[in-house]
Write a structure and sequence with these properties.
This protein has a single domain, classed as Response regulator (Rossmann fold, 3-Layer(aba) Sandwich). It contains 4 helices and 5 strands, in the order βαβαβαββα. Strands 2-1-3-4-5 form a 5-stranded parallel β-sheet, with helices on both faces. β3, α3 and β4 form a beta-alpha-beta unit. α2 packs parallel to α3. The longest helix has 14 residues.
């Protein structure tokens, strides 16, 4: 089945951060499937097609388990780990990319585009300032 938007499975534990990250990805043109629980994420991952997985805002132990479980299901789907500044991701080498959570949404979008190599159809067209067009 063809689809216009790259599909991303987003896994997170903190509702505010999770929701804002998902909304940013949706506005950037990604089709986001959210998941709060690891078992739910694995079930969704096994039953649907995804272009990438984003794991963020959870314990190191949970992130490591998720990466291993996701790789067992489908090792070809890229995994991006979002980790807090104070914690250098010890398992960044198991993921396809790792990004510091404080680097901001632009860095996350660049990272996703680099690992999936597919440009999304943007959901929101940026407004051009009148001053910029002069």
């Amino acid at each position: 089945m063809a689809y216009a938007h790259p599909r991303v499975l987003c896994i997170g534990a903190y509702p505010a951060v999770f929701e804002s990250r998902n909304r940013i990805l949706e506005l950037a043109g990604f089709e986001v499937t959210p998941s709060f629980r690891g078992t739910d994420a694995i079930t969704k991952f096994a039953s649907r097609s995804f272009d990438c997985v984003v794991i963020g805002d959870s314990s190191e132990k949970l992130r490591l388990e998720l990466i291993r479980d996701l790789r067992r299901v489908n090792a070809s789907v890229p995994i991006v780990v979002v980790y807090p500044l104070a914690e250098l991701s010890i398992h960044a080498d198991l993921a396809d990319a790792a990004i510091d959570s404080l680097q901001g949404p632009e860095a996350l979008l660049r990272t996703l585009l680099s690992v999936i190599r597919k440009v999304p159809q943007f959901a929101v067209i940026p407004k051009v300032r009148a001053a910029a067009s002069r």
